[in-house]
Amino acid sequence: xxxxxxxxxxxxxxxxxxxxxxxxxxxxxxxxxxxxxxxxxxxxxxxxxxxxxxxxxxxxxxxxxxxxxxxxxxxxxxxxxxxxxxxxxxxxxxxxxxxxxxxxxxxxxxxxxxxxxxxxxxxxxxxxxxxxxxxxxxxxxxxxxxxxxxxxxxxxxxxxxxxxxxxxxxxxxxxxxxxxxxxxxx
Length: 186
Ligand SMILES: [Zn+2]
Prior knowledge:
186 residues; alpha+beta; 5 helices; 17% helix; binds zinc ion
């Protein structure tokens, strides 16, 4: 079963991160691999489905009215209604500082600056989530082209989409709305 078929099975699962020691060695001369830390949780783990019940944190559930009271209109539209920010609009696109990007709705850490890369797409891009459990995926068939939606595992905020055309070591490109995140400088 390929990645898309697996998603179609309806299982909500965490970001797919499978990096074997062999792959790490094979990438030893790659720029990305140069900053690659095999101890980093962002790139450890297995290709396993994580059921919602197994999440190591309580889900955050709020009404639209409650979300509106703590989010800006754009944050609400993107995270709670599946919107997309204008390309090249986020100050995070060119941010080079070290730190962690957390969910703007519930503060769950989502992505590390360690896995951020320049995709020239107009949106902040990462090749892996900070932890495979913190980010979940769902099949998105709202457009004619089927895509894989990326959400915060704790509050189900819409973050963006993940594509299979990313750089080593994962080959994934998490294309994320900057407005869906806050940056915590290291
Ligand atoms: Zn969240």
